[in-house]
Design a protein that fits this description.
With about 140 residues, the protein is an alpha+beta fold. It is about 20% helix and about 45% strand. Strand 3 and strand 4 form a beta hairpin. The protein has a single domain, classed as Alpha-D-Glucose-1,6-Bisphosphate, Chain A, domain 4 (2-Layer Sandwich), CATH 3.30.530.20.
Amino acid sequence: MRHGHPQAHSAHPGTHPAGVRHDQQRGSFAEWNPTIRASRRLGDGPVGNGTRFEWELRGFGKVVHELQEFDPPRQVRIVPRTRQLKGGHRFKLTADGGRTCVEHELEMSPTGAFRLFTPIMGILGRKNLKDTASALQAHLER
């Protein structure tokens, strides 16, 4: 199942999704995203493709996520590393005058026995997307 949410923000053009700068200018994912109760980076080195984080997610518990399609300041995909779920969050950013347009897509595909929870996952996915979009907007516009 795939859900999308386009947004326009008054953020400085070229702003990258806040959490990607984990432990740098913007802080951790959990600082701005209410769907993430705790976040910690796994490993050292520069943030980029393959960087992993452990998130404590509302409704899911602790899940390791990996950055993919990392192309600052244009795009990042955040992919869960779990056997029960495939997909992830994709953020695409484009300059639009003095604003930044954010396309946020959430793809969740339950696998194995988790497919039985597909209807619930759809409800959780839409709520997660809405909450994340609202929180990102508030964070980028402050």
